[in-house]
Design goal:
Order of helices and strands: HHHH
Mean pLDDT: 90
Number of helices: 4
Number of domains: 1
Strand content: under 5%
Distance between the termini: 26 Å
């Protein structure tokens, strides 16, 4: 599966995922947790994006309006999507 294509369809770009992964790394540092490889934070951001897409699709079926995956990511992480 081409995840980048799926992310692009839902207006989630690499810059947004980079911001989220950087936020994860910063939070870990603030909590004095062991530093992980950047790829781990990137994978976590991508997994979270996949979950946001799934959440959007699931709620879209039963609701008149649903929140976009990019906005779910903003709600969950506090990181705004890139303009």
């Amino acid at each position: 599966m081409d995840y980048q294509k799926l992310f692009n369809q839902h207006h989630i770009n690499a810059s947004h995922l980079d911001d989220i992964s950087q936020q994860f790394a910063l939070r870990a540092k603030e909590l004095r947790l062991p530093r992980q490889a950047d790829a781990i934070y990137q994978a976590a951001a991508a997994d979270l994006a996949m979950g946001a897409i799934e959440l959007h699709l699931d709620t879209q079926e039963g609701m008149k309006e649903s929140i976009s995956p990019a906005h779910w990511l903003e709600i969950i992480t506090g990181c705004k999507p890139a303009a």
